[in-house]
Amino acid sequence: MKILFLLFPLILLLAQGAAGEREEGKWGNCWKQRGFCTRRICPRGTSFAGRCSPGLACCKR
């Protein structure tokens, strides 16, 4: 039972690290281009720069 108290923080740290990698991998390219992610269509006054994920477009001003 005491081992659960040691494993729980370790699992939380691993989950937090995995979330950071995902964010950098998909959205990092858009942010490096100084763009932003939006749903499907870029707003007026912006241009399409790529894809953040299957349902999100990367737009630049």
From TrEMBL:
Residues 1-20 form the signal peptide. It comes from the Eukaryota. The keyword Signal applies. Residues 29-60 form the Beta-defensin-like domain. It holds the Pfam family Defensin_beta. The keyword Signal applies. Keywords: Signal. This is Beta-defensin-like domain-containing protein. It comes from Cyanistes caeruleus.
